[in-house]
Write a structure and sequence with these properties.
This protein is α+β, with helices and mostly antiparallel strands. The chain is built from 3 helices and 3 strands, in the order αββααβ. The protein has a 3-stranded mixed sheet, with no helix packed on it.
Amino acid sequence: MTGTFGGALEARQVNASEGRLVSETVGEIENEDGVLVVKRIHVRYLLRAEADADRGKIQRAFDTHPPRCPVYRSISPQIEVTTELELIDA
């Protein structure tokens, strides 16, 4: 998902390269009849951007990237996927 989000940012001329965009992912697993099953995944993006960056472009890329992501499309709706974005002034 991070690659898809990064690509969406770059398409909007928002630099997401060289470590500016990183993500942390946490999965929640439940035991179903003795089998561990991934039920929920939360992705937290951290984007270092200039203070004058077009926040509207960044928000649109964030809002629209999940349905364009092969990973998201492969695992949802069987696994609930949530995302959040934290902007860090560069």
